[in-house]
């Protein structure tokens, strides 16, 4: 399906990298996606690193941390907590300064200010006088508070100031945020961006369509969590201005939309010339899969992340990675990297019904798992349950060979 191929191409997942990764590829990948969601779960590599690995292949994870400290990327609230390029941070700060947000982070921040405004201002003054801080710089006193991940008060206050924009993340140390005054972090970045709400919303709509390659109207709002939802009436002026192109897609009852920057990609798709060849393990927070409705409609793949469920209610496992193979999502695996032992454990591998289990498919799946394991520094792969069971011996033979 060429619509799928367009989305994969726009996301940088149509074909495997043709050369070794370079530092500039990291910024290019984030710019192509428009954002890179942050999540701290690290049974395998933390999500942002894994998202980049699916697009860049093997690269040093320190590149992301160094880009943040150097001011080439920044952290903000976008889809959720995300990295964006330095050129985009002003857009996001302008947006959040002008909208009335119902995001959970803003609600927590408001509660924190209501209950502890004096202490929060004292903390802000401490940063102003003493410089960047981490939450771990403050000792926990008393019992852990419930809610907001049972953070200690200073962590909640730092996050509240981050949510409201007074603090930003200047770097990370062992993935811990290091907070500084926004004015100090912004000095490393591009100048602030100024536009009204309607212009900013228009920009986010266009950026969403560009990042998705091709989109139905109802998919657009989720990418940057826009409210209200985007509809065809709102897209009509963008079509009239030539910013978007409208296309018919077989099997869709409503139009597809393509950004004008992808006009040549659309032409290739119409000629049937987009060929997906990439095999990769995807993060649960990859932009390709985070919208479960879009994922089901575009790739016919039902997926949910189960790490937030009690173990007894999990169907596939704690941290399950979708498996992309040549334009299809053909399965999922529950993985854990045992770094001290150098072992990459595939607790369970589930291939979708109807997947062609050809020697080439199994070889490419085995190689993608092996490549991901090696990048983790856990080159020995151990496979547990497998469905269908018969492929387990083939995969193990590849890893032994």
Structural description of this entry:
Pfam families: AlkZ-like. This is YcaQ family DNA glycosylase. With 401 residues, the chain is an alpha+beta fold. The chain contains 15 helices and 13 strands. The chain has a five-stranded mixed β-sheet. It has a three-stranded antiparallel β-sheet with strand order 1-3-2. Strand 2 and strand 3 form a beta hairpin. Helix 1 packs antiparallel against helix 12 and helix 14 packs across helix 15. About 1% of the residues have low confidence.
Task: Give a nutshell description of this structure.
The chain is α+β, with helices and mostly antiparallel strands. It is built from 15 helices and 13 strands.
């Amino acid at each position: 399906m060429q619509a799928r191929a367009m989305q994969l191409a726009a996301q940088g997942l149509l074909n495997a990298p043709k050369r070794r990764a370079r530092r500039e590829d990291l910024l290019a990948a984030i710019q192509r996606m428009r954002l890179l969601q942050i999540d701290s779960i690290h049974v395998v590599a933390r999500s942002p690193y894994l998202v980049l690995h699916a697009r860049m292949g093997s690269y040093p994870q320190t590149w992301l941390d160094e880009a943040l400290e150097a001011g080439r990327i920044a952290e903000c609230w976008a889809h959720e907590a995300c990295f964006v390029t330095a050129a985009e941070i002003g857009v996001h700060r302008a947006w959040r300064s002008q909208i009335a947000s119902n995001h959970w982070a803003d609600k927590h921040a408001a509660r924190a200010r209501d209950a502890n405004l004096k202490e929060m201002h004292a903390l802000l003054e401490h940063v102003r006088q003493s410089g960047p801080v981490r939450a771990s710089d403050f000792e926990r006193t008393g019992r852990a508070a419930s809610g907001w991940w049972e953070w200690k008060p200073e962590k909640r206050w730092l996050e509240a100031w981050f949510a409201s924009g007074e603090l930003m993340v200047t770097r990370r140390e062992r993935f811990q945020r290091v907070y500084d005054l926004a004015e100090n972090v912004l000095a490393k970045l591009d100048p602030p961006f100024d536009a009204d709400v309607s212009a900013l919303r228009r920009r986010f709509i266009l950026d969403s369509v560009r990042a998705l390659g091709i989109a139905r109207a109802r998919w657009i709002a989720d990418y940057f969590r826009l409210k209200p939802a985007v509809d065809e009436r709102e897209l009509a002026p963008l079509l009239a201005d030539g910013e978007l192109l409208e296309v018919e897609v077989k099997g869709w009852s409503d139009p597809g939309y393509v950004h004008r920057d992808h006009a040549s990609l659309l032409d290739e798709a119409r000629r049937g010339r987009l060929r997906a060849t990439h095999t990769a393990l995807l993060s649960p927070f990859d932009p390709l899969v985070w919208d479960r409705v879009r994922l089901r409609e575009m790739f016919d793949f039902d997926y949910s992340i189960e790490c937030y469920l009690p173990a007894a209610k999990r169907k596939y496992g704690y941290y399950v990675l979708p498996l992309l193979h040549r334009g299809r999502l053909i399965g999922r695996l529950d993985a854990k990297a045992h770094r001290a032992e150098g072992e990459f454990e595939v607790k369970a591998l589930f291939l979708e019904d109807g997947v062609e289990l050809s020697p080439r498919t199994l070889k490419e799946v085995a190689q993608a798992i092996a490549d991901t394991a090696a990048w983790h520094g856990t080159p020995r792969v151990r496979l547990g349950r497998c469905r269908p069971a018969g492929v387990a011996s083939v995969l193990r033979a590849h890893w032994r060979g």
